[in-house]
UniProtKB/TrEMBL annotation:
<comment type="similarity">
    <text>Belongs to the radical SAM superfamily. KamA family.</text>
</comment>
<dbReference type="InterPro" id="IPR058240">
    <property type="entry name" value="rSAM_sf"/>
</dbReference>
<protein>
    <submittedName>
        <fullName>Lysine-2,3-aminomutase-like protein</fullName>
    </submittedName>
</protein>
<dbReference type="InterPro" id="IPR013785">
    <property type="entry name" value="Aldolase_TIM"/>
</dbReference>
<keyword id="KW-0413">Isomerase</keyword>
<keyword id="KW-0479">Metal-binding</keyword>
<keyword id="KW-0411">Iron-sulfur</keyword>
<dbReference type="Pfam" id="PF04055">
    <property type="entry name" value="Radical_SAM"/>
</dbReference>
<feature type="binding site">
    <location>
        <position position="114"/>
    </location>
    <ligand>
        <name>[4Fe-4S] cluster</name>
    </ligand>
</feature>
<keyword id="KW-0004">4Fe-4S</keyword>
<feature type="binding site">
    <location>
        <position position="117"/>
    </location>
    <ligand>
        <name>[4Fe-4S] cluster</name>
    </ligand>
</feature>
<dbReference type="InterPro" id="IPR007197">
    <property type="entry name" value="rSAM"/>
</dbReference>
<dbReference type="InterPro" id="IPR022447">
    <property type="entry name" value="Lys_aminomutase-rel"/>
</dbReference>
<dbReference type="GO" id="GO:0051539">
    <property type="term" value="F:4 iron, 4 sulfur cluster binding"/>
</dbReference>
<feature type="modified residue" description="N6-(pyridoxal phosphate)lysine">
    <location>
        <position position="322"/>
    </location>
</feature>
<feature type="domain" description="Radical SAM core">
    <location>
        <begin position="96"/>
        <end position="322"/>
    </location>
</feature>
<keyword id="KW-0663">Pyridoxal phosphate</keyword>
Length: 334
């Protein structure tokens, strides 16, 4: 390009060298990023790359996806399995921590790999796709566990599956009479909106209530393409919820959170959860103390509509599930 700026990539960037060639990683950061890449996967889609300002060293989008050597430093409090998936896995691909709901992880591939991911030791490009036998066993577990009323597809990112494959899984779950709700957790609508085709939207029609939790952490992630993709899902009857992680340098200010929640609502996404960071190895640079998180939300009280208000939650240790963190509010305040 005439100004020397590298052209925007037309394919997913999966190596430090590709990030450097796209102008998203300076030359002096290459050696450190290459060491990180030997342990943790890298993936930055064209849609995400287009959101990054390479001239801003503190860009909140880049911070979420560009590797940093700090990822290789494990703090004393950090855990390889901070949500304790493993002890609550009755069969491969299923996590059952709550009496009335369970996770189904049909694959462990994502369109992008977040540098703060609590499953960062497990996810990667090889995908961890359940075999036919493993999927059958997982669905059989749901069939013989009538106490479970909600199936939550996560991973990895379930919207990375083909519409045919995803539709088949949803239909088999929807056919179980004791399942009332289906839920999908995904980054795809904001990170790879081109995957949200009419065929994918059609695959989500199951005859039972289906909720899609969209993971986004900054207002800029709601690009025109993302808003269009979410609109397609909305028109298909999918209820859209938003979940975010409170992250240092990404959304740890009142203005950033307000912008995020307002952007969600404009895209027909109801803010649902704001997560306290799970202590996965090498994620300490993203940590915001709970009291600071409470103060941020307290400052938003009355500044945004109640529709923009998520529940601030934290995973309890040893797989105890989520607990709300507040903030507490006195009716005499203000």
């Amino acid at each position: 390009m005439p100004d020397g700026t590298p052209p925007l990539p037309n394919r997913t960037l999966k190596t430090p060298q590709a990030l450097h060639a796209a102008g998203l990683l300076p030359a002096e950061a290459l050696p450190g990023a290459e060491v990180v890449a030997r342990r943790y996967s890298i993936s930055v889609t064209p849609a995400v790359a287009a959101l990054i300002d390479p001239a801003d060293p503190a860009d909140p989008i880049a911070r979420q996806y560009i590797p940093d050597p700090a990822e290789l430093v494990t703090a004393p409090h950090e855990l390889a399995d901070p949500t304790a998936d493993a002890p609550f896995t009755p069969v491969t691909g299923v996590v059952h921590r709550y009496p009335d709901r369970a996770l189904l992880k049909p694959l462990l591939a994502c369109p992008v790999y977040c540098r703060f991911c609590f499953r960062r030791e497990a996810v990667g490009p090889d995908g961890g796709l359940l075999s036919e036998a493993e999927l059958d066993a997982a669905l059989a577990w749901f069939a013989r566990t009538p106490a479970v009323r909600e199936a939550i597809l996560t991973g990895g990112d379930p919207l990375m599956l083909s519409p045919r494959r995803l539709g088949e899984i949803l239909r088999r779950l929807a056919a179980l009479p004791h399942l009332d709700l289906l839920r999908i957790h995904s980054r795809v609508p904001v990170a790879a909106p081109g995957l949200v085709t009419e065929a994918l939207a059609a695959a989500l029609e199951t005859g039972k209530p289906l909720y899609l939790c969209v993971h986004a952490n900054h207002a800029r992630e709601f690009s025109p393409a993302a808003v269009e993709a979410l609109g397609r899902l909305h028109r298909a009857g999918v209820v859209l919820l938003g979940q975010s992680v409170l992250l240092r340098g990404v959304n740890d200010s009142v203005d950033a959170l307000e912008g995020l929640f307002r952007s969600m609502l404009r895209a027909r996404v109801k803010p649902y959860y704001l997560h306290q960071l799970d202590p996965a190895p090498g994620t300490a640079r993203f940590a915001v103390p709970v009291e600071e998180g409470r103060a941020l939300l307290r400052a938003l009280r009355g500044r945004v509509t109640g529709l923009a208000w998520p529940t601030y939650v934290q995973e309890r240790p040893a797989g105890g599930g989520k607990v709300p963190l507040g903030p507490e509010y006195s009716p005499n305040e203000g």
